[in-house]
Specification:
nine-stranded mixed β-barrel, disordered N terminus, 11 strands, 8 helices, 286 residues, alpha+beta
Length: 286
């Protein structure tokens, strides 16, 4: 993927310092949000409104309720982990990764030729590792409750499903992108705040997605694994600096089979005006 990688390097030198400064707060905010949600610290919207509130109209559909605009073409900014993202690391390189002994053994046993022969060359392009690969994204709405994220790296497509999807998720067949359930998370200035009606559009927020039903894959291209039972939680948010739009995705990968603790990382993208450089390429083992 020569062209996307060249563009990525250029974007990195242009905005590394600025992007690092701006993403720090967003990554911290997303992680705190994750911890708060998990511990039940975030009060319910109904409790915030109080008793006796006037009945409100039905909430808008997810597309209309979006607090941020994720649509368009985005190019990755490799502001960290350069030697693990731009090239395939050596076999057994698990530096800075919270792998347990079983995960280390699996990484040491990685055989790219064996993956190729078994038709498993897309293991590094599943949802657990895809966002960390350099390249471009194309994000669009399929309908009012379905957001589609296409990646040119490995020609992969992820689908984000809004609404009650527990039954659909349970019946979904394992795949590289897995099954992603999505919901909007508001930053505190949305419906029900300061007299705003329940169907009002929030000022800002983020997209929270939880992905399960992934086929076993690699979250680092040199065979560092995640299992079929791994759960990937992501927060997608945007920010703007000097008229330029950026996308920050915070990933939290949980997998007791191969990880001693959740693996938390963030990746950044810069918005493009068009599809310049968009070049889907097949999965490669190296």
């Amino acid at each position: 993927m020569i062209e996307p990688l060249h563009a990525t390097a250029h974007e990195t030198h242009e905005s590394t310092k600025r992007t690092k400064k701006l993403t720090g707060f967003r990554v911290f905010r997303a992680f705190v949000c994750f911890v708060a949600l998990g511990s039940g610290m975030v009060p319910s919207l109904s409790a915030q409104r109080g008793r006796g509130a006037a009945p409100q109209g039905p909430p808008p559909v997810p597309r209309a309720a979006a607090p941020i605009d994720l649509t368009g073409y985005w190019v990755s900014l490799v502001t960290d982990d350069w030697r693990w993202r731009m090239v395939t690391p050596p076999k057994g390189d698990v530096l800075y990764l919270p792998v347990n002994p079983e995960g280390r053994r699996a990484a040491d046993a990685w055989d790219p030729a064996k993956d190729e022969a078994a038709g498993e060359q897309c293991r590094a392009y599943g949802a657990g590792g895809l966002m960390h690969l350099p390249g471009r994204l194309h994000i669009s709405w399929h309908d009012d409750a379905t957001l589609v994220v296409e990646a040119d790296a490995g020609t992969q497509t992820r689908v984000m499903h809004f609404g009650p999807n527990a039954q659909a998720a349970a019946s979904a067949q394992p795949s590289w992108p897995g099954y992603s359930v999505a919901q909007w998370e508001n930053d505190g200035a949305g419906p029900g705040r300061r007299g705003r009606p329940s169907n009002a559009k929030p000022v800002h927020g983020s997209l929270r997605t939880v992905t399960t039903k992934m086929r076993p894959g690699y979250f680092r291209r040199n065979g560092v694994p995640y299992s079929a039972n791994a759960v990937l939680t992501e927060y997608w948010t945007t920010l703007q600096d000097e008229g330029v739009d950026y996308l920050v995705v915070t990933n939290i990968l949980e997998d007791p089979q191969y990880l001693a603790q959740p693996y938390v990382r963030s990746v950044q993208f810069k918005k493009q005006a068009d599809n310049r450089g968009w070049k889907p390429t097949p999965c490669l083992t190296q």
